[in-house]
Design goal:
Length: about 425
Amino acid sequence: MPDLLKTKLSRRSVLQAVAVGAAGVSPALRTAVYAQGSDAPEKKEVKIGFIPLTDCASVVMASVLGIDQKYGVKIIPTKEASWAGVRDKLVNGELDMAHVLWGLVYGVHMGTAGPKKDMAVLMNLNHNGQAITLSKKLADKGAVDGASLARVMAADRREYTFAQTFPTGTHAMWLYYWLAAYGIHPMKDAKIITVPPPQMVANMRVGNMDGFCVGEPWGHRAIMDGIGITAVTTQDIWRDHPEKALGTTADFVRKYPNTARAVTAAIIEAGKWIDAGLQNKNRMAETVADKAYVNTSVDAINQRILGRYQNGLGRTWDDPNHMKFFNDGSVNFPYLSDGMWFLTQHKRWGLVKEHPDYLGIARQINQVDLYKQAAAAARVPVPREAMRSSKMVDGVVWDGKDPRKYAESFKVNAASAA
């Protein structure tokens, strides 16, 4: 838990925040809770793209519960088929914002994930809640975790195929980091393919891959369908890792700063509502399971959002580090060190050729000041520092202090694939 500091509120912010209570305030109050005059949102309707994944929930619930209206905006959730499609629609302005991978935003900004465009991260949407799944056929041969996978691959040499969801995205980075931690070179010892999240389970079912990394509910869905097992959760690779961001372009933030702040505040409040208790989580699961959103059964979602895990081989456990959307205010701050970490991994795997200005780029992308204003409106705490320290699955600590040294410290990297 980071060191949190209660944000000081202006008198006007306090007056607004008093009215921003739980969802369901009266229409008469709704008109009083968002800034008026020069602070009013410049753009009232905001199209936010999302991929059918459990962690789109705070965007969806901000709309469904009407929390967005309390901040003077109307969120229009827009279902998308792939991360590449989200990227293209963000860049050409068809989408205003998106539930999006941190690494995609950084990749577009750097020009390593398609057309180069200045991008912005408004907030982190969730911690944790992704998993690496191995096929049941591979598990039957003894590969049930990282160490046993390495042994099986060494003993039975053939082409092994693993899937991630976007080349510079979070799932690619979790998969690469985890394989490398067990001595498996993702670029030399395996074939890596890109598959959209909702298509992962279907592709594993027909034998197109040996494993995949994706967000829930697709890891649990593979277990329910009897075709895969959970080898590791991403919270066991990096506890409380950044996952999806609320992303947009730098142009949008410059043109519509009040709208960006209002949407951020609404989604912070929606995440707080989700994490408030069992009843809210169940309602969220019932909502996002609908065909309009994730399009799966409720029981594929409502177990892991409560931390009730099974690995598909008979082991069950309660995980306190399951997917969180708010967690007393520790989830949503756009830490500079979180963004810098993705740049270190992009350098490690050859996605960027030279060391970038790690801190300078993170400051360009992560809208820290705007987030603090939104947090004040939503009456939630913010951390004292924009950097944090984290310990990874291999015992290595990342704190953002020396990103060049950190990026060069890994023996398994793009250069070692030669």
